[in-house]
TrEMBL record:
Domain F-box: 16-62
SUPFAM superfamilies for the chain: F-box domain
InterPro entries recorded: F-box-like_dom_sf, F-box_dom, PP2-like
Lineage: Eukaryota, Viridiplantae, Streptophyta, Embryophyta, Tracheophyta
Protein name as catalogued: F-box protein pp2-a12
PROSITE patterns for this protein: FBOX (PS50181)
Length: 281
């Protein structure tokens, strides 16, 4: 009798509310103010958070304002995706311009990053195998690099016409002095053709369609390491019209030859990522 009475009392006690009782619309309104990795973690709390984390307006707030223009440039981008899946797809490297360029979003910030392969650059003498060759390597995002044996007139040019979102961007050339390979599982660097880079600095330049310009120069004197060489910065103030950016690296002093250089790619990214790039090999 006593136990039955106590059961009746306990069964009438009010159930305490939990996070799962929050309306999905309220949860989604909070998720808008969080970073994408935080949203993904919170989506695993319960069903309410999982459903709220799929709301289109949550992920649209993380996408660049002109993401539709970016999608139009990408090859084979799927149709009819929800905003969450569009964000996830754009965070993967997406090819355009015949596969010579790739664009992706930074997973944490949604910042637009772009990479141009050596095949997408105009390289003086690239078709003459006495000077240049294409080398396959797993150390490149594009699986191959342009390798210079020897040349008098060194010039690499490129340009990109792209709908960059509003913001500040940095441009880098990814280069390596010497030719890397593996022997018995160990990475080694062949410096057989390396010469001429200590006599004159390499000049890096950029210009934009709205008149911005930058010039830097440096000696290439660290063999065996992939380095990101800073060309300069530019600012995008409007994303309605695509920004055309031209970039180059030259060492055209014909008093001496130079060689033994791997040209991998050009990277364009938000300026706040510059330090991150410098820490990579």
């Amino acid at each position: 009798m006593g136990s039955a009475f106590s059961f009746l009392i306990s069964s009438t006690e009010p159930i305490k509310p939990s996070l799962g009782d929050l309306p999905e619309s309220c949860v989604a309104s909070v998720l808008v103010y969080m970073d994408p990795p935080e949203i993904c973690k919170l989506s695993m709390l319960n069903r309410a958070f999982m459903r709220a984390s799929s709301a289109d307006f949550v992920w649209e707030s993380k996408l660049p304002l002109n993401y539709a223009s970016i999608i139009q440039r990408v090859q084979n981008f799927p149709n009819n995706l929800c905003k969450r899946d569009i964000y996830a797809r754009l965070c993967r490297p997406n090819s355009f311009d015949g596969g010579t360029k790739r664009v992706w979003l930074d997973k944490s910030t949604g910042g637009v990053c772009l990479s141009v392969s050596s095949s997408g650059l105009a390289i003086t003498g690239i078709d003459d195998r006495r000077y240049w060759s294409r080398i396959e390597t797993d150390e490149s995002r594009f699986k191959s690099v342009a390798y210079l044996q020897q040349i008098w007139w060194f010039e690499v040019d490129g340009e990109v016409d792209f709908p960059f979102p509003v913001g500040s961007y940095s441009i880098f050339f990814r280069l390596q002095v010497g030719r890397a390979s593996r022997k018995f599982g160990r990475r080694i660097c062949n410096s057989e053709h390396v010469h001429g880079w200590d006599k004159k600095p390499v000049r890096f330049q950029l210009s934009t369609s709205d008149g911005q310009q930058a010039t830097t120069q440096c000696y290439l004197n660290e063999p065996g390491m992939w380095k990101y060489h800073h060309v300069g910065d530019f600012v995008v103030t409007g994303s309605v019209t695509p920004m055309k950016v031209k970039y180059s690296m030259t060492q055209i002093d014909c008093t001496h030859t130079k060689g033994g250089l791997c040209v991998d790619s050009v990277v364009i990214c938000p300026v706040e990522f510059a330090e991150r790039l410098k820490q990579r090999f």
